[in-house]
Amino acid sequence: xxxxxxxxxxxxxxxxxxxxxxxxxxxxxxxxxxxxxxxxxxxxxxxxxxxxxxxxxxxxxxxxxxxxxxxxxxxxxxxxxxxxxxxxxxxx
Length: 92
What we know:
Blueprint: H1 15-37, H2 42-65, H3 70-89
Helix pairs in contact: 1-2, 2-3
């Protein structure tokens, strides 16, 4: 199990971070529904990828301040770069 799933310390996220994640998730779901209803409008998908990138940046900053391994927050920042590069794919 330790190969793919890393043991996390028992440090919990702060309540404002949890609220931000929930708001971002609901916004992403609303944008996904609106994007599919309007005939696969890619501008909504671009906003979803931007929010996913911001979420990965928040995760990276949080793992840095919690003192986790360098690999953890570098992976989060790597995913943020990936999400933001996918945003450029749908640029008009």
